Amino acid sequence: MGLREQAALDSQAFLGDSTSGFGWPFVLTSPAGVSTALTGYTTDVAVTIDPDTGQAVAGKKASVAVSLASLPAMPTAVADELVKPWLVTFADVQGVTSSWKVIEVLPDRAVGVVVLLLESYASADL
Fold it and tell me: Which domains does the chain have, with CATH numbers?
């Protein structure tokens, strides 16, 4: 087994492991309404620092990193507001659930990981 194959196995194990605390449960919903429960690495950042000025700027960013092998289908980012987007829903550490739309899909096929960049879609108890 080569290093890339080992890296793909390792990333799948790390991202899918919810028992050690690294993996976090989330739901991926297709535009057709098909929902799949997955485990991956999620981020939810409420304040972002502007790299040029070092100043805090308003905004909310989120992402999900998941093993390519665990995805039922590759999500796509849709710029058209009239087209139903792929959605990601997860709770934060305080139990507050948020729903996000996928705005960018970054697959790394060398190690079998996909990063979904997210934009706030709806927040509340879904």
Answer: 3-123 (2.40.10)
What does the alpha-carbon distance between residue 45 and residue 47 come to, in Å, rounded to a whole number?
A: 6
Q: Following DSSP, what letter does each residue of 59-121 receive, concatenated?
A: EEEEEEEEEGGG-SS-------TTSPPPEEEEE-TTS-EEEEEEEEEEEETTTTEEEEEEEEE
Residue closest to 117 by CA, chosen among 9, 53, 43: 43
pLDDT in tens, 91-107: 988 999 999 999 999 99
Distance between CA atoms of 15 and 12, rounded to whole angstroms? 5
83 touches 27 (CB < 8 A): no
Distance CA 76, CA 30 (A): 9
Contact criterion met (CB below 8 Å) for 64 and 118: yes
Q: Model confidence over 9-40: pLDDT tens digits?
A: 888 788 877 777 678 999 999 999 999 999 99
Give pLDDT tens digits for 37-70. 999 999 988 767 777 887 766 677 899 999 998 9
